[in-house]
Amino acid sequence: MNDAHRNRLTRVRHAMQERELDALVVTLPANVRWLSGFTSPEDARVLVTLEDAWLLTDGRYIAQADAESHLPAVIERDWMRIAAERAKDGQVGVEAEHVTLATGTKLEHHFGRDPIRTEGLIARLRRTKDDAESDAIRRAAALTDRAYEHALGMVRPGVRELDVALEIERFVRSEGGDGMAFDVIVASGPRSAMPHGLASSKVIEAGELLTIDMGARVDGYCADMTRTVGVGTVSDAHRALFDAVLEAQVASLAAVAPGTPTRDVDAVARDILTRHGLGEAFAHSLGHGVGLEIHEAPGLAPRSEDVLEAGMAVTIEPGAYHPGDAGVRIEDLALVTEDGYEVLSHAPKGWRTVGVDA
Ligand code: ZN
Ligand code: ZN
Q1: What is the pLDDT of residue 357?
Q2: Contact assessment for residue 297 and residue 305, using Cβ atoms and an 8 Å cutoff
Q3: Ligand 1 centroid to 61 CA: how many Å?
Q4: Residue 232 alpha carbon to ligand 1 centre in Å
Q5: What interhelical angle do 131-152 and 161-174 show, nearest 10?
Q6: Quick one: which of 241, 291, 266 has its CA closest to 29?
Q7: pTM
Q8: Which of 5, 110, 264, 338 has the smallest set of CB atoms within 10 Å of its CB?
Q9: Ligand nearest 329 Cα, by number?
């Protein structure tokens, strides 16, 4: 086990002691991977006690667990029996945000007592990234930049959204990424007003706004970036929409600093868009944490209680959407540092037209 993984276990045990837990059954895949390094966490659990920790998985993964896991592996299909045996008589915590009612009932049966429901115990610890994690996120962001620039080269009137998305995916895989962190969003024309408009068979046309929201995954870690461009010349109203969102994005990104409540960063963008008459059109929160999961803590939203800390990887992604007409979103991934932030998304975000010769 390396220092980073030893440190993660130490932090989990501190959090367990605060909750007076003697053992914790970790089932949430991202948490299993974070603690063990095992890359098939959907088929594994981690049992943490105050002295020991094990990866519990089955016979399909003997070689893989041996090669990847920082924790000793126990190979046994009936993992609940092993967990109950090794947790002994103490208070056992489960991850209530992930365990189903059916699994909870079985665990109760195996342990012979009610497990203690924890929520977000490890998610809170995962908010701040160590050096190895920051490095993986930085590499995922760099690959995302390159895939975006590559795909933009094929955008022109007549090309389908899904062909752009496919080219992004192909590029990421061929350049060594694990795959995409989430389904690629390519939304043109009226579809750009759909914040989660997955690439469709729609043909991109001249004069449209085009939004691409994408992120590569590298060594398990996600990136997340959005750019909106014009396919040739767009209307003055659509250009004004872009300028307002860019102003909000630049200002709210500049507000990122350790010690700042995330709701204050959200407010910077929201106030600017409201001044442009786009308060209602900004129909989502400003951003979210990114790591092994594409959406994780902290949240950057009007009612969030989170405060930025050095080591957090967060997105800053204001948008404005006029349903049926058009939308704009601009999203950067940034790492909070001791004295501010490091932007990890480097693709140009200023106004840009593509695909139509002047
Ligand atoms: Zn995104
Ligand atoms: Zn995002």
Answers
A1: 67
A2: no
A3: 33
A4: 24
A5: 140
A6: 291
A7: 0.94
A8: 338
A9: 1
Torsion of CA 281, 283, 288, 292, to 10 degrees: -120
Print the SS3 string covering 125-167: HHCECCHHHHHHHHHHHHHHHHHHHHHHCCCCCCCEHHHHHHH
Ligand 2 is an ion; residues with CB less than 5 A from it: 224, 315
What is the CATH topology of the domain spanning 131-354? Answer: Creatine Amidinohydrolase (3.90.230)
How many angstroms is it from 120 CA to the middle of ligand 1? 23
Confidence of residue 154 (pLDDT cuts 50, 70, 90): very high
Among the bound ligands, the one closest to the CA of 288:
2
What is the 8-class DSSP label of residue 323?
Answer: T
Residue 284 CA to ligand 1 center (angstroms) comes to 12
Q: Is 88 exposed, middle or buried (0-12, 13-18, 19+ CB in 10 A)?
A: exposed
Average pLDDT, the chain: 96
Ligand 2: distance of its center to the CA of 272 in Å?
20
**What residue segments make up the domains of the chain, in order of their start?**
3-126, 131-354
The alpha carbon of 105 and the centre of ligand 2 are apart by a number of angstroms equal to 35
Architecture of domain 3-126: 3-Layer(aba) Sandwich (3.40)
- Judged by DSSP in three states, 267 sits in helix
